[in-house]
Amino acid sequence: MEKNILSIDIGTSSVKISIVAIHNDRSNSFEIKSQSKCYYDTKRIRANNLPSNHSQQNVQVIFETIDDALKCMEFNVRIDSITVCGQMHSCVLWNHRLFVDPFDPNNLRFDMISDNYDWTDGRCDENFLKTLPTPISFADKVSSGFGCASLFWLKRFQPHYIDQFDRCGTIMDWFVCLLCRLDIVPISIQNAHAWAYFDPIKPGWNLDILKQAEFPIHLLPKPFESNVIVGQTQFQWHSIIEPGIPVYIAIGDLQAMMHLALKDNPNAIVLNMGTSAQICRLLVDKDGTLRIPRKSQLPVQSYDYYPFKNNEYLLVAPSLNGGNVLQSFMGFLQSTVKCLTNNELTREEIWDKIFHKSPEEFSNHDDNDDNDQSDERFISIKPTLFGERHDLSSVFSVNITGAKQPSLFNVINCLCIELIQNVFNMMPNVCETIRNNFNQKISTKIICTGSVMANNPILQRSLLIVIKRILLNENKSENKNNDEITNLLTSSLIDIEYVDKCDADVGCALFLISQSTNDTGAMIRRMDVDRNLMLFINGRPLPASSSITLSTIQIRNRMNGQQIPLRIMARRVG
């Protein structure tokens, strides 16, 4: 017995869709039956007349890309449920009248939908952020690109524009509402936390604070646990989506990817590099004693705690600089080559030429860089092209010392090293763990996810250099030399695994189905419902008890017998 899940990842630059067959056994084994990936039209996804620090995406282009990706799917199975994940900080607004007319992919009213204000948006500068109230949550720092920050800015500077909308959510929430024709916008606790002004422990929005700050609280989506079914598809879309398919609440792409990455290695450190970069590790509150500190009280404010599932959290250093910096540099090389030679090279062709160079051509910035007196350290790069949330003033810079002229390969090598060094610097806790494990002869598992790391030998080599720097920084007093460190790096004490296929859409399906399966027989707390509604369990009316253990629930309207979704809070028994 297996469940076939259609899972969709609405990313920053592309849409990925998979059909994941999950076997209904204790192993939770799975098989990917079909996949497709379509990139946004780069010429249409963003408007050209925006200020350089504004980052918003055309929702019509996103929708058309989802449509194209669905067309590319090959399948011969019936879809049992749909899961959605994506860019969790994003914010899109729409008018409820959008879903009044029957669904027609060719005539969707995009004039009733705002752009998608994504996580890279920088319109909320430091001065603006200082005018915002402090959230009541362990995440008590607000950054530009967070959903609530974007709404604050729109309310203050474009009030007439925002007044035409009466709904908002992440781009994934909008898509879930589209599929199910929902009037109330459901948002997962994961994504609500990523918007700021949300307490995931309580859980709930900081409504009193937001009201006092004249925030448009009527727009806020309704938060739910990150494992509930919020509705059913209401229409036929191509041959793959039929009416009546259950749709789960949308979750964050980071949590989805981490669920897959940590599936067999819960104690591993995960380094992910996609458009951005993150270092993550899992924290489990086994006995209820974990107390998460406020971000403002952390000694280093470059990392965050993210809600994951049940009593688990993710400790995350989220850098805004990853594959996007390398892409920008490749774009610079493209334009330089065209300007000087009138020849056009694709970014793939440039990388191919770089990868085929011999390792010796990178030797001017190699493993000997721990020697502070080395005359080979003639180039340094600060790779924060897109700044960082904890340091809005951070910029990209290149510093060349001495008369020695660096080659293109020195620059690329240094850039890759410093990109990885930057994200490790944001998580001192991880660096300390690596050093402590190393000194105690305990193996450290590092899982590198994403095709950027898996397919780039320069980045892989750069990771080894950064780990060596971490170890040498601790062990200089012990006179450990380079050769000894290098030998230990290649031993089992530092276990590095590169995972090309750790797709968020696959992780999303596994995450939501595993949570749903684990909560079978959960204790459902009876909630207030309209007096015209009656609860049924397996066709029988629900007794008026305060709580009851359920295997299945359906809710019917007494007036016409129509089935409608039941939204509930669930807690595992025992």
Automatic annotation (TrEMBL):
Please provide the record's keywords in A-Z order. Kinase, Transferase
Q: InterPro entries, per this entry?
A: ATPase_NBD
CDD domains per the UniProt record, alphabetical: ASKHA_NBD_FGGY_SHK (cd07777)
Q: Which SUPFAM superfamilies match?
A: Actin-like ATPase domain
One Gene Ontology term of the biological-process aspect is: glycerol metabolic process
Q: Which domain of life is it from?
A: Eukaryota
Q: Name one GO cellular component term.
A: cytosol
Molecular function GO terms recorded: sedoheptulokinase activity
What is stated as this protein's family in its record? Belongs to the FGGY kinase family.
Q: Which PANTHER family does the protein's record reference? A: SEDOHEPTULOKINASE, SUGAR KINASE
The name this protein carries in UniProt is: Uncharacterized protein
Q: Which taxonomic lineage does the organism of this UniProt entry have?
A: Eukaryota, Metazoa, Ecdysozoa, Arthropoda, Chelicerata
